[in-house]
């Protein structure tokens, strides 16, 4: 039975994908990793850090088969499998990760973790530390007293998680969009630990165009009076602004081909001509509104803003002291497979290619391939199946 699944990615975008339930679903368990304290790249201390994580496959005797998967902007660690056989949908890359698949869990031990300031605070399967968490020093939610964190800080927590398994070398690190940024950070900060990287729909630096767009993503939350400078816990949350923000993200991370093929110019209600009233909408508008509201219902506005700041300020290798993107990229030694979408409007193809050339200049083996499809940026989550064999081959080298 085929079904349409709402998916948001890298910028957290909405699209409808076809997913098939099967008898061979991998059943996975969500666990929690705890770190007594984290010193951020900015020099702040966060006490009692917790993140959720999942593992797939078995760690081999010499602990050489571990692959880390980092998630996209609106994602979670649920990259593959189901928590229960009755779940309607599997993890977002289930068609790539599992027994006999591109990332073969009969061969590899896969680790996927939630990030700090994960967006999905209302999801009972998500564990994350961020502004909505209780500050142990005050007994109240941090709000904007929580330190600003970076992609490098996300990776510091992941490094501690990986260390807890006794893994000293990663066979590979991979991820889509913000997960791709984390992949670059891993390779630049821990160049002797990471053997291969697969950044998907992600450039090695955000650049001014995306930094500006991320500001547009943030704007509806910042102008919602209920945001109240981040002080809304125990009060009315800025859900209206957050819903509008997520709608913008959804449209930006998709493509006009998706809109044309999925909706055309159909009215949301056949009896309500958009010309007759401002509330009468087109079907694409109504779908984006519904998707934004649904995501806002389980998301936290401060976490959303913190994620935006982390993406805007990304510098690969910041965890190792890199001050510029060029400096960080020069540290990368890992074999690289870059997968990008020519129709991507978030990380445009030229910026990805520039990063590939910069890494290749280090004397590193770099491969690139284009992801086709109608979903723009979201092709990196929804349309990767044609590259399954390439991924499997790259991992086996």
Plain-language structure description:
This protein has 397 residues and is α/β, with parallel strands linked by helices. Helix content is 30%, strand content 18%. The protein has a domain at 18-206 and 315-396: Rossmann fold, CATH 3.40.50. The strands form four sheets. An eight-stranded mixed beta sheet has the order 3-4-8-5-11-12-13-14, sandwiched between helices. Strands 1-2 form a two-stranded antiparallel sheet. Strands 6-7 form a two-stranded parallel sheet. The longest helix has 16 residues, at 207-222.
Radius of gyration of CA atoms, rounded to a whole number: 20 Å
- Please give the CATH class of the domain at 18-206 and 315-396: Alpha Beta
How many helices in DSSP terms? 11
**Which architecture of the domain at 18-206 and 315-396 would the CATH scheme give at its second level?**
3-Layer(aba) Sandwich
Element order: H for helix, E for strand: EEEEEEEEEEHEHEHHHHHHEHEHH
Helix content: 25-40%
Number of strands: 14
Can you tell me the residue ranges where pLDDT is under 50 for at least 5 consecutive residues? 1-23
Q: Characterize the main sheet.
A: 8 strands, mixed
According to CATH, the fold-level topology of the domain at 18-206 and 315-396 is Rossmann fold
Overall geometry? globular
Average pLDDT taken over every residue? 94
Mind sketching the topology for me?
Elements: E1 2-7, E2 15-20, E3 31-39, E4 45-56, E5 66-70, E6 97-98, E7 103-104, E8 109-113, E9 134-135, E10 140-141, H1 151-164, E11 172-176, H2 178-189, E12 196-200, H3 207-222, H4 239-252, H5 256-262, H6 283-297, H7 301-312, H8 325-329, E13 335-340, H9 349-360, E14 366-370, H10 379-382, H11 388-396
Parallel strand pairs: 5-8, 5-11, 6-7, 11-12, 12-13, 13-14
Antiparallel strand pairs: 1-2, 3-4, 4-8, 9-10
Helix pairs in contact: 1-2, 3-4, 3-7, 4-6
């Amino acid at each position: 039975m085929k079904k349409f699944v709402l998916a948001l990615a890298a910028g957290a975008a909405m699209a409808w994908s076809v997913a098939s339930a099967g008898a061979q679903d991998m059943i996975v368990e969500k666990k929690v990793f705890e770190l007594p304290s984290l010193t951020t790249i900015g020099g702040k201390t966060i006490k009692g850090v917790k993140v959720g994580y999942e593992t797939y496959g078995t760690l081999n005797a010499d602990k050489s088969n571990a692959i880390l998967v980092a998630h996209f902007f609106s994602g979670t660690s649920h990259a593959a499998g189901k928590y229960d056989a009755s779940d309607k949908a599997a993890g977002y890359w289930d068609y790539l990760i599992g027994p006999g698949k591109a990332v073969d869990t009969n061969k590899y031990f896969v680790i996927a973790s939630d990030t700090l300031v994960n967006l999905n605070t209302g999801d009972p399967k998500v564990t994350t530390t961020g502004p909505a968490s209780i500050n142990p020093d005050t007994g109240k939610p941090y709000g904007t007293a929580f330190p600003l964190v970076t992609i490098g800080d996300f990776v510091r927590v992941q490094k501690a998680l990986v260390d807890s398994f006794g893994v000293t070398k990663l066979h590979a690190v991979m991820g889509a969009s913000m997960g791709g940024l984390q992949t670059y950070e891993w390779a630049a900060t821990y160049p002797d630990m990471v053997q291969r990287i697969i950044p998907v729909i992600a450039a090695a630096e955000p650049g001014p165009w995306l930094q500006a767009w991320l500001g547009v993503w943030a704007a509806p939350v910042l102008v919602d009076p209920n945001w109240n400078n981040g002080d809304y816990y125990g009060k009315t949350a800025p859900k209206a602004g957050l819903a509008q923000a997520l709608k913008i993200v959804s449209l930006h991370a998709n493509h006009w081909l998706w809109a044309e093929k999925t909706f055309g110019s159909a009215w949301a209600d056949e009896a309500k001509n958009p010309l007759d009233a401002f509330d009468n909408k087109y079907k694409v508008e109504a779908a984006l509104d519904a998707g934004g509201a649904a995501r806002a219902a389980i998301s936290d506005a401060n976490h959303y803003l913190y994620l935006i700041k982390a993406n805007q300020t990304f510098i690969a290798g910041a965890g190792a002291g890199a001050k510029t993107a060029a400096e960080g990229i020069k540290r990368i030694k890992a074999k690289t497979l870059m997968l990008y979408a020519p129709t991507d409007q978030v990380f445009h193809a030229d910026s990805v290619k520039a990063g590939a050339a910069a890494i290749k200049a280090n004397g590193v083996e770099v491969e690139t391939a284009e992801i086709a499809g109608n979903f723009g940026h979201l092709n990196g989550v929804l349309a990767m199946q044609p590259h399954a064999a390439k991924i499997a081959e790259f991992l086996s080298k």
